[in-house]
Design brief:
The protein is built from 2 helices and 2 strands. By secondary structure, it is α+β, with helices and mostly antiparallel strands. It starts with 13 loop residues before the first helix and ends with a helix.
Length: 82
């Protein structure tokens, strides 16, 4: 989070970012693969509360957003086939 390009989202701060990077051992909090772009991974947060959750690959962040967006619809669909 340097170079004057603040990427703070939700309640992410520079301190939380660095603490998460260390706590996650430089890995994505979702797939646990190494974050190759450690300089600027996606900062996941709860869109309702703003609470910081974890550092993710950009692709994992997009997947998580889609799952959150459509989880109810997917659950209803799968119930039909139980």
């Amino acid at each position: 989070m340097s170079g004057g390009h603040s990427r703070d989202v939700g309640d992410w701060t520079e301190e939380k970012y660095h603490a998460a990077l260390i706590a996650q051992s430089g890995r994505c909090a979702l797939c646990w693969e190494i974050l190759l772009n450690k300089k600027d991974p996606a900062r996941d947060h709860d869109h309702r509360t703003g609470k910081a959750r974890g550092l993710l690959h950009a692709r994992c962040n997009v997947i998580l957003e889609e799952v959150e967006k459509y989880s109810s619809m997917i659950g209803q669909y799968l119930k039909v086939y139980e």
